[in-house]
Amino acid sequence: MTTSTSSDSQRTIRMAQKRISGFSKLSKEEKLAWVTEHFFEDSAAAENLIKSFYHRDDAAQKMLDGISENTLTNYFLPYSVAPNFVINDKTYTVPMAIEESSVVAAAASAAKFWSTRGGFQAEVLGTVKVGQVHFLWSGDGTVLKAAFESVKQQMLVDTDHITKRMCERGGGILSIELLDKSEIEAGYFQIHARFETCDSMGANFINSNLEAFAETLSNWGEKQPDEIEIIMSILSNLTPECLVRASVSCPVEHLGSFEGGMSAEHFARRFELALRIAKEDPYRATTHNKGFFNGLDAVCIATANDFRALEACGHAYAARDGQYRSLTHCKVEDGAFTFWIDFPIAIGTVGGLTKVHPLASKSLEMLGNPSAQELMCIMTCVGLAQNFGAVKSLVTTGIQHGHMKMHLANILLQLSATEQESKQTMEHFADRVVSHSGVREYLETLRG
Ligand code: MEV
Asked: What is the set of domains in the chain, with CATH numbers?
């Protein structure tokens, strides 16, 4: 009993030592010292390791520190490229930042495959983004509805200073609508606004406008006998009107033959069935869509766009009819194989980190400094390529065939294999099942 009380209090002391107030006010050195002292067995070694990831150029490091908050160091991801992406008859080498080794290989292979079969076609179907002001109105809804047209005109006047430059670039506020949501909560209304933000993702632009709308609305409310209570003003990451359609298509016989002698017709049938399964079965749909996002996110990160926003939007869109389904579709009709997607993708090529992060700006240069619309097409095609590559492997060789080859390279790296040892181990495992212990044992035999 006594023992447990004393160990409880020791635990409490240890936990208290791991809490801190005013952390964000400490210098970077002090933050690092506090973290390494409290959370690592060997704080000096941890500090050295963490510092070894600093950029050698102080100015670049300062810029990287400035991007986020409480930064200790930089977190590296491999930065790769997938060449031979033919999209709308233009050839791109696409930058991809991702940790999963097989993703880039699959993207590059699918890009090459389709480059000799007409390439990818992509078009932007819309670029509209959405924002909402959520509020409560204690008065009669009809009074609010009747007054809304003039409140809306005032909103446009009050946001003039925010929208002026965007309007000059061809964008701005497209519509402002009042929605009665009192079925959710008595007196709950929304302002649902639509925006065009040109080459920027536009989050700050949209949010500034929404907050200004809320203020105009509050000002109107102050003159009323009843009350307006603004709950929140924020853009929506669901952008079903900011849409790209991307596809690949070729005569079935041009698909060629596949591993194990699988014919083009047989492949097309299996691929199309795999897509139907992903459409109907949410378990499969989730993994299927993950394959699409493997490609999309990697380009998104390489160009410093917000992959969380694209993921949230994509998954909501995948469930738009009430069931989570595959984002991509396939048909085999009149002897033609077609694989396509309609994907909502709100990204930017100006603003945000796109020009601040040196590698993001190099990624954009590598892509020929595309407009936001062109980048929407590129990203969607890389996702489509990735999804094609994954499903192609699944319905032909199985996924482990390719994955394990990549995995083997990682294991060899972990076990510090020399070039010669790696070569021999690769040959040995060419037709054997790869496992960590198997590779370790084989290396031990090589090393005697
Ligand atoms: C792995 O990261 C992605 C896949 O599981 C996608 C799929 O199953 O379609 C291979």
From this structure: 24-76 (no CATH), 81-125+241-398 (3.90.770.10), 127-236 (3.30.70.420), 402-447 (1.10.8)
Q: Cα–Cα distances in Å, from 405 out to 260, 411, 427, 430?
A: 18, 10, 11, 8
Residue 1 pLDDT class (50, 70, 90 cuts): very low
Q: What pLDDT digit, counting tens, does each position of 212-243 carry? A: 999 999 999 999 999 999 999 999 999 999 99
Taking CA atoms, 71 is separated from 23, 27, 50, 65, 360, in Å, by 11, 10, 11, 6, 19
- Nearest atom within ligand 1 for CA of residue 294: 2
Dump pLDDT digits (tens) for 360-412. Answer: 999 999 999 999 999 999 999 999 999 999 999 999 988 777 667 778 888 99
Determine whether 129 is an active site residue: no
User: Does the active-site annotation cover 51?
Assistant: no
Most distant CA pair in the chain, distance: 89
